[in-house]
Design goal:
Largest sheet: 6 strands, parallel
Strand order of the largest sheet: 5-4-1-6-7-8
Strand content: 5-15%
Oligomer: single chain
Distance between the termini: 25 Å
Radius of gyration: 17 Å
CATH topology of the largest domain: Rossmann fold
CATH superfamily of the largest domain: HAD superfamily/HAD-like
Number of domains: 2
Order of helices and strands: EEHHHHEHEHEHEHEEH
Length: about 220
């Protein structure tokens, strides 16, 4: 018996798509690096080294020798900074998630973050209730930029690639979706200018209201 349903699955990225964590992430990286090395890193150096997972970013800055210790420190400091400063949720996201929840849609989250910082963010913004599947870097053997997490999210939602949509803010997100023949949307509200997706198949959306309308059409197809 096939346990998959025929409902569409909507899977979101987290950082830069639902919430703006950029400033708190940079601050946490700076504080972590200072404690581990005693060195004050330039903001530009941290930005240039930034990757799709916390571990990759810290490894790019420190190498593999201190990255385990640094990741533990980053996690503690990120959660502390989150409590102190909070984060912005992008305008219009509540409307989209409430609509999907009301429709009983299969909604998941696939992020390059660790589970501890992911859940801290979701709980801070009261978003946990919207997701039937949450896949983080801790839940897969190969996290972003690999596609294992999106495969797992769709499986947990009992969906199929042909009826799934992945929404993210980086070309890595779009590459992952393309590899799996999953429809994708590249959102641009966290950046002044997006990198061109080139030949990658995707739709670029600049406003949350436009994303809302697209999702409505997608789930009604």
């Amino acid at each position: 018996m096939n346990s998959r349903n025929d409902k569409p699955c909507i899977v979101f990225d987290l950082d830069g798509t639902l919430v703006n964590t950029w400033n708190i992430h940079l601050k946490t990286c700076y504080e972590t690096l200072l404690e581990v090395t005693g060195k004050q890193y330039r903001k530009l150096d941290i930005i240039r080294a930034n990757k799709v997972t916390e571990m990759e970013t810290l490894t790019a800055l420190l190498g593999k020798v201190d990255n385990g210790k640094a990741l533990k420190l980053y996690t503690v400091k990120f959660i502390a900074n989150l409590k102190l400063y909070g984060v912005e949720q992008f305008e219009g996201i509540d409307r989209i998630l409430e609509f999907l929840n009301h429709r009983g849609s299969q909604v998941g989250l696939f992020t390059g973050r660790k589970r501890e910082t992911t859940m801290a963010l979701l709980e801070k913004k009261n978003l946990t209730r919207y997701f039937r599947s949450v896949i983080t870097a801790d839940d897969v053997v190969r996290p972003k930029p690999f596609e294992e997490g999106l495969i797992k999210a769709i499986e947990e939602l009992k969906g199929g690639n042909e009826r799934s949509l992945y929404i993210g803010d980086t070309l890595t997100d779009i590459e992952i979706a393309n590899k799996l023949n999953v429809s994708s949307i590249l959102v641009s509200w966290n950046q002044g200018l997006l990198q061109s997706p080139g030949k990658m198949k995707t739709i670029i959306i600049n406003e949350p209201d436009d994303l809302f309308e697209y999702i409505k059409r997608f789930i009604d197809e």
